[in-house]
Amino acid sequence: MNLTDWLKPGLKIKRWIALGVMGIFLVSMGIYPIISYVLGEKTLSSHALGMLFLGSLFVGIAVKRGLLSVLNILDIPGEGTSYRSRIDKKLYDKRVLMRGPKVVVVGGGTGLSILLRGIKKYTLNITAIVTVADDGGGSGKLREDLGMLPPGDIRNCILALADTEPIMEQLLQYRFSEGSLKGQSFGNLLIAAMNGISDNFEEAIGKINDVLAVTGKVLPVTTEDIILYGKLKNGKVIKGESQIPVKAREYESEIDQVFIKPDHVKPLKEAIEAIKNADVVILGPGSLYTSVIPNLLVRDIAEAIRKTSAMRVYVANVMTQPGETDGYGVWKHLEAIEAHMKGQVIDYVFINNEAVPLEVLEKYEKDGATPVLLNQEDRDRIMKAGIRIQEGRFLEVKKQYIRHDTDRLSEQIIKLALEEKYATDKIRILDYYFFHDKLKKVSRN
């Protein structure tokens, strides 16, 4: 629309422009005597104060009502809800979610991004701390060719938290099928380009967060180049994140431990601060040895998790991962985390207790994956360690692929965070009731 189009009859805009002009005139007439009074040139009259007040009131009304008229003009027909009401709802939701729990999620891979999609419905205060040990696929290629940190896991987390249209998400996840870019995703290339015009990788990710209107923050655990190594039970040492499970299967030997080189890399200060100030720190879901634990090997990350007053949660995987966690139950997952962190840090463990559909289970078992189960022996060990068990129907099957039900899992984590951190805090008690109501509304939807 041209400027003259906004002045056409029936739009209910000219009246508010006129009122605004009148208000500005009254403000200017009232402010001159006040300035003269401050300078000691005149006595202050009540007329001047009256004009200033009335003018300010007129300007305020004109701006508010004028904007509402514009929003009503921008109504999208056939939607049933006006653009204005959608804007109002979005602003209201944002104000509410700004008071949500401070959640830090540590890990990488598909599992982490799935969880983030659920968590962002309840809070804007999210920090995803993501591994940079990936050396396979498109990320590995960019790492090798451009000398940059691997963008793949970070890309998935950014998209999970981004406020973008579906077409934009499809575009960023698009993988080229031919030529020299075969297998590479457009989102990885976008991050690579942003890295090229930025001073460092941290700044590049910050800019991507801004461009895609990310809820919260996505942070690489470190901006230093690291290589993940795995030591197998047979004594062999495997170099490279992507090779560890492959060689473990080839040698038919379990992973004993993983470590990084160099081993004294610095974490991002923002990551440490986020853990320190969190209400809840979540480890997983994701590949135990190649997505979750590598973050804990970065200097000061494990110590920050140990010292935080946050509720510390581990989300157990639904299925074992061939070459990494073959035959693992819940306790062995926890044991591996605590071995690498040199002490117990987990307060709660979330475990799926829903049965996997038989036809899907058979497909996974052919590849060597089995459900991560909680047997009585594991239950006794976990309880003896003082870790509280949260079981639920956290399973979702999409296109024959098993994943966590992000809505159910996120709801239970947030509900627990409210009970632990809000219900006992006098300052946040009103938010506690407010978010309990929101949990009910989200569940119904």
From TrEMBL:
SUPFAM superfamilies: CofD-like. Gene3D superfamilies: CofD-like domains (3.40.50.10680). One of its GO terms (molecular function) is LPPG:FO 2-phospho-L-lactate transferase activity. This is Putative gluconeogenesis factor. Required for morphogenesis under gluconeogenic growth conditions. Keywords: Cytoplasm, Membrane, Transmembrane, Transmembrane helix. One of its GO terms (cellular component) is cytoplasm. Belongs to the gluconeogenesis factor family. It holds the Pfam family CofD. The chain crosses the membrane at residues 16-38, 44-63. One of its GO terms (biological process) is regulation of cell shape. It comes from the Bacteria. It is found in: Cytoplasm.
